[in-house]
Amino acid sequence: MASNAGPPQGELKWMTPYPIANDPPTPKPIPDVVHPTKSPAERASQRFSLAGKHAIVTGAAQGLGLVSARAMLEHGVSHLAIFDVDQSQASAACNHLLSLHRDNKPQVLFRALDVTDEAVVNSTVDEVAAEFGGIDLLVCFAGITGSELSVEYDIQRWRNIFDVNLHGSFLVARSVARQMIAKGTGGSIIFTASMSGFVVNTPQPHPAYAVSKAAVHHLARSLAGEWVGHKIRVNSISPGIMNTRLSGGPAQADLRKLWLEKSPMGIGDPEDLTGAVILLCSEAGKFITGIDIKLDGGYTIF
């Protein structure tokens, strides 16, 4: 029988409190204009601007991460670090990103990184933060999947999926949050979850992947609540079936037919994620924290 050891020992920890905002003034019949000295076009641009921001994107050597990193640069990110385990593909990705900016080239660098290695994550984030002068944005795309029946799942492969998708996201986010807290200027962190965290995908079984992504949803909410007092916003996005190397090609042709029957808007393009990423990174999303945005083409409606 388990013994009753009583309450936890040691110092009780509390979340960082957030300041209670002042009661706003009564709104005017015609609302005030934000940035009143700017033109409507300038205000529109400012709303989604990432000008001068310093960012880290994990898993950005290809696919969804690369396309989103490219969009962040297009919106003005001046310093970008790509973290990935694929060194050869990351080199090509960096060259691609720099080739799109002939004038006012951003600083783009790559660091080979296994997101499950806590010591390397901490040292690499520290190094990049020192080189950039701080980190404003983190978008976590590093993740793996695996299709296997639960009754046959090797427990080590199961744990590996959780290590990368959940624990790796936490380790990088925690290290970046420490930098943001030390600097005192806040920031935005985005996790990549999945519609699989809401529904059971069929016919292929993805129990470890789906459960790890459901956990990512709540990780975002938990950290959002813990770090809101530091002006750090934490959110997640949940892609549906996207046209990447994992779903494209002849080997997946039969599955794509089944997916198309279930997805009212078809299969998404990686570019379809970028609007949500820029929203959550920019001033347009400054009042958004602790949410998940589903980008699934209506897959989870029915």
Descriptive notes:
By secondary structure, the chain is of the alpha/beta class. It has a single domain (40-295), classed as NAD(P)-binding Rossmann-like Domain (Rossmann fold, 3-Layer(aba) Sandwich), CATH 3.40.50. It is built from eight helices and seven strands; from the N terminus they run H-E-H-E-H-E-H-E-H-E-H-E-H-H-E. It has helices spanning 40-47, 63-74, 87-99, 118-132, 155-183, 207-227, 253-262, 274-281, and strands at 54-58, 79-84, 107-112, 137-140, 187-192, 232-239, 292-295. The chain has a seven-stranded parallel beta sheet, with helices on both faces. Helix 5 (155-183) links the parallel strand 4 (137-140) and strand 5. The longest helix is centred in the middle third of the chain and has 29 residues, at 155-183. The chain is globular and about 60 Å long. The model has no long low-confidence stretch (mean pLDDT 95).
Blueprint (SSEs and pairs):
Elements lengths: L39 H8 L6 E5 L4 H12 L4 E6 L2 H13 L7 E6 L5 H15 L4 E4 L14 H29 L3 E6 L14 H21 L4 E8 L13 H10 L11 H8 L10 E4 L7
Parallel strand pairs: 1-2, 1-4, 2-3, 4-5, 5-6, 6-7
Helix pairs in contact: 4-5, 5-6
Distance between the termini: 46 Å
Provide the gyration radius in Å. Answer: 21 Å
| Total count of helical runs of at least 4 residues | 8
Helix vs. strand class: alpha/beta
Q: How many runs of DSSP E, i.e. beta strands? A: 7
Per the CATH scheme, the topology name is: Rossmann fold
Shape: globular
User: pLDDT under 50 segments (min length 5)?
Assistant: none
Please give the order of strands in the largest beta sheet.
3-2-1-4-5-6-7
* Helical fraction: 25-40%
